[in-house]
Amino acid sequence: MLQSYTENNTKLFTENNTTEMVEQQKLMKRYARLVQVGVQDFISVELNYQDEARMLLSKRTNSTGLIIMISFLVVSLGSLLFAILLSTQIGTSLNKIVHFAQKISEGNLIVKGLEVKTNDEVAVLADTFHNMAQHLGLVISSIVGASKISMIQLL
Fold first, then answer.
1. How many helices (H) and strands (E) does the chain have?
2. How many domains does the chain have?
3. Could you tell me the mean pLDDT of each successive run of 10 residues in the chain, 155 residues long?
4. Which of 9, 32, 123, 126 is the most exposed place for a label (fewest CB within 10 A)?
5. Is this model's pTM higher than 0.85 or not?
6. Are 21 and 9 in contact (CB under 8 A)?
7. What's the rounded Cα separation, in Å, for the pair 14 and 12?
8. For 137, how many CA atoms within 13 A lie in the half-sphere containing its CB?
């Protein structure tokens, strides 16, 4: 189109047809304005689209950050609750074992009620203390029995 415009202007210029040249120039100015308006409209629409996309992305980013923070808080609170429950359970079991060991150290080898309701090292420790108390009782009974026999033999 531009080449035909140039050829057309050259032809009009050589023919000295100024009125038609003015008309051609006006037509070209109208075309230029139409193109300019079209480009400006396109840029405006594109900028509006970019703004909408930026706002949507910002909203999604904010909601994603909120979801991450809430998830972190839930996991943290769950972990804290689990740690408190676990430490309470272990502490209770160890307190029972300590109480049992104190009774044994006081000479009471017939202590009952050492029941730990876990399946871990604390339960093994409780069973070991319970077995130790029974064996100590048997050993002391054997010693007392042997001592009575030797006293009777001495008499």
1. 3, 0
2. 1
3. 60 68 83 92 94 90 90 96 91 86 81 74 83 84 82 72
4. 32
5. no
6. yes
7. 5
8. 12
